[in-house]
Amino acid sequence: MDNNSFKEERVLAIDYGSKRVGLALSDPLKIFAYPYKTIENSTDLIDKLILVIKESSVTKIILGYPLKENGQKSDSTLMVEKFKEELEAKVSIPIQYWDERYSSELAKANILASVKSKKKRRNKGLVDQNAASIILQEYLDEAGK
């Protein structure tokens, strides 16, 4: 069997922020989410995302949707909606919002529990990619039901 007949397709989660963007990928069976990387939010962000999408055979994007505690939209929500429109204009795969109200807090707790080095725990990029991983794992758990 050649490499083209079996593609290991994955789901990509994006935790979008004004400074950094956390990314997580699923395994090929779409059961587990793994923190992937954090990239700076710069003018070439979409180009970098397109590269990740191609390299990792991404077939769907889950985009963290930041709502206020009471479910209302915030400035961050509007920023994410604008980003989704820009990304949809450049890629042809589905992009789905996912409520991310508690993902950053859960990510911080996970990092405190699993990362021993205080210096590494202060790495905000680690929080972003772990938040993306939590968003993706919640989506995968729901999709698998």
Summarize the structure.
With 145 residues, the chain is of the alpha/beta class. The protein has 5 helices and 5 strands, in the order βββαβαβααα. 42% of the residues lie in helices and 24% in strands.
Q: How is the topology of this model organized?
A:
Elements: E1 10-16, E2 20-26, E3 33-40, H1 45-55, E4 58-65, H2 75-88, E5 95-99, H3 103-114, H4 118-121, H5 124-143
Parallel strand pairs: 1-4, 4-5
Antiparallel strand pairs: 1-2, 2-3
Helix pairs in contact: 3-5
How would you describe this protein?
The chain is α/β, with parallel strands linked by helices and 145 residues long. The chain has five helices and five strands; from the N terminus they run βββαβαβααα. It has helices at 45-55, 75-88, 103-114, 118-121, 124-143; strands at residues 10-16, 20-26, 33-40, 58-65, 95-99. A five-stranded mixed beta sheet has the order 3-2-1-4-5, with helices on both faces. β1 (10-16) and β2 (20-26) form a beta hairpin. α3 (103-114) crosses α5 (124-143). It starts with 9 loop residues before the first strand and ends with a helix.
User: CATH homologous superfamily, by name?
Assistant: YqgF/RNase H-like domain
Task: Give a quick account of the main beta sheet: strands, pairing sense, barrel closure.
Answer: 5 strands, mixed
> Which word captures the global form?
globular
Q: What percent of residues are in strands?
A: 15-25%
- Quickly give the structural class: alpha/beta
- Count of discrete domains: 1
How is the quaternary structure best described? single chain
Q: Any idea what the CATH architecture is?
A: 2-Layer Sandwich
CATH class: Alpha Beta
Number of helical runs? 5
According to DSSP, the number of beta strands is 5
Fold-level CATH name: Nucleotidyltransferase, domain 5
Task: List the secondary-structure elements in sequence, H or E.
Answer: EEEHEHEHHH
Q: Which regions have little confidence, pLDDT < 50, spanning 5+ residues?
A: 1-5
Spatial gap, N to C terminus:
32 Å
| Sequence of strands across the biggest β-sheet | 3-2-1-4-5
Portion in helices? 40-55%
Summed over residues and divided by their number, the pLDDT gives a mean of 86
